[in-house]
Design brief:
Helices cover about 30% and strands about 20% of the residues. It is built from nine helices and 13 strands. It has a single domain, classed as 3-Layer(aba) Sandwich (Rossmann fold), CATH 3.40.50.720. The protein has about 280 residues and is of the alpha/beta class. The strands form four sheets. Strands 3-2-1-4-5-7-11 form a seven-stranded parallel sheet, with helices on both faces. A two-stranded parallel sheet has the order 6-13. It has a two-stranded parallel ribbon with strand order 8-10. Helix 3 crosses helix 4 and helix 4 runs parallel beside helix 5. This is NAD(P)-dependent oxidoreductase. It comes from Saccharobesus litoralis.
């Protein structure tokens, strides 16, 4: 359970990990970070809010004791994995193996809670509403994500898996995604979540009493907006001229449910996915 006195280790100081660290530090937590770049380690040492920062390259040569040593140095009672799966990168190591190493290291240390950021890519693209129990290894990517989630079973403390919908926010404007799209559906729902709501929801869920905290929770906006409507709004707000919009089709798609998150009492920072576009 996250409190003002918590000691937190965030593995990954990137687009999500670094702002999450700063938000936790403002709550009074002692926040520690790991980076894969020596240059970034040095730059983050100047961040007054960060209590400590260490280099950590999670690859095929990583060992449990490497991560355990950093956990012990940080004296962390909460560990957060905020690094991407890296499926497109060669020699990035197996994602599930990375999480096995982290879970095992947490188990032999004094860690009380482990948070993993996963993805709503574990739900098949079909015309249905997907709740947390609907995850399925329907393709290679989903199978690898679920294997990584299952790796948390190596840790016997409190675990929290947050399945993130499509991410956008500062330095990640959804308007820039449009040029890579071959077509956009006028029917399929745009399952999206802004960085600010990812951070706010993470803090909210971590501060719940253990008996009230879920083991898995979707982070996605509740509004029903088609992909075509969302990306039309995104391209209008994107400061790039002469960007053409891809063809619109009638492809069906999933709708990821945030009912559990709402039942737990979370209040979204932004009213819906369209409103959040203005904060990128």
């Amino acid at each position: 359970m996250l409190t003002a006195n918590s000691r937190v280790l965030i593995i990954g100081a990137g687009w999500l990990g670094l702002p999450l660290a700063k938000a936790m530090a403002k709550l009074g937590c002692q926040v520690h970070l790991t980076c894969t770049s020596a240059a970034k380690v040095e730059s983050l040492k100047n961040e007054k809010l960060i209590a400590g920062v260490w280099p950590l390259l999670l690859d095929d040569n990583s060992q449990v004791h490497d991560i355990q040593k950093i956990i012990e140095l940080s004296q962390a009672d909460i560990v957060v994995g905020a690094f991407p799966p890296g499926f497109r990168k060669a020699n990035s190591g197996d994602y599930a193996t990375k999480w096995q190493l982290i879970a095992q290291a947490c188990q032999v240390s004094k860690v009380k809670q482990l948070l993993m950021y996963s993805s709503t890519a574990v739900y098949p693209e079909q015309a249905s509403i997907c709740v947390e129990s609907d995850a399925l290894a329907f393709n290679d990517k989903a199978a690898k994500l679920l294997q990584a989630e299952q790796a948390l079973q190596n840790f016997k403390g409190s675990t929290l898996v947050l399945r993130l919908a499509g991410l956008y926010g500062p330095n990640r404007h959804p308007g820039r995604f449009v040029k890579h799209m071959k077509a956009v559906s006028q029917i399929a729902n745009a399952n999206m979540i802004h960085l600010d709501d990812v951070i706010a929801a993470s803090l909210y869920l971590l501060q719940l009493q253990p008996q009230s905290s879920p083991s898995v929770c979707n982070l996605v906006y509740p509004n029903q907006v088609s992909k075509a409507q969302f990306y039309q709004a995104a391209i209008q707000a994107y400061p790039v001229e002469n960007m053409s919009f891809p063809p619109v089709d009638q492809t069906l798609g999933k709708t990821v449910s945030c009912q559990l998150l709402q039942q737990l009492g979370y209040q979204f920072v932004y009213a819906d996915s369209l409103a959040a576009i203005q904060h990128c």
